[in-house]
Amino acid sequence: MTVFQSEFVAQSIFRIDENPPRIRKCLDLLSETEVWQRPSNSSNSIGNLILHLCGNVRQYAISSLGNLPDKRQRDKEFESKGGYSKAELIFLFEDTINEAKAVIREVNNTEWVKERNVQGFNFTGIAILIHVVEHLSYHTGQIAFYTKLLRDQQLGFYDDMDLNIKNDND
After folding, report:
1. Is the pTM of this model over 0.85?
2. DSSP assignment, residue 127?
3. Is residue 78 part of a domain?
4. Structural domain tally of the chain?
5. Spatial CB neighbours of 76, under 8 Å, sequence gap ≥ 6
6. Which CATH number fits the domain that encloses residue 46?
């Protein structure tokens, strides 16, 4: 693996790893009922979003990059109105993320540029990893937003950091 590829994988995994603690924090603040509550008829519950993330990461990273059969049933991710506790959801999510990271770490040079069909799209391995990172972040943001809406409080994702530090461009 080239230095660039190694750094790309490391930074992608760093971004992937930001999401589970944020989702866990949201779930800790919510009741079992709130996790499955939909903000509107056209929206998904946090439980649905977690199931969706598991399905998407499994399809894109584990199945596609890992060259394994695609067994995803996408519609079921959104049809569910319960059936999983908060603990079961976070276990399922974290287990999926850990499995995906193991697959990502094993992808070789050829596989990063190999094109494959995923969910009807033609993507290289690089494009698949970019999709996984952005898709996780996108839905983690939705989960955080809905949690803030329900709790009317900051989530403190950056409480241990000073985000006002200026860039060092000297």
Report:
1. yes
2. H
3. yes
4. 1
5. 51
6. 1.20.120.450
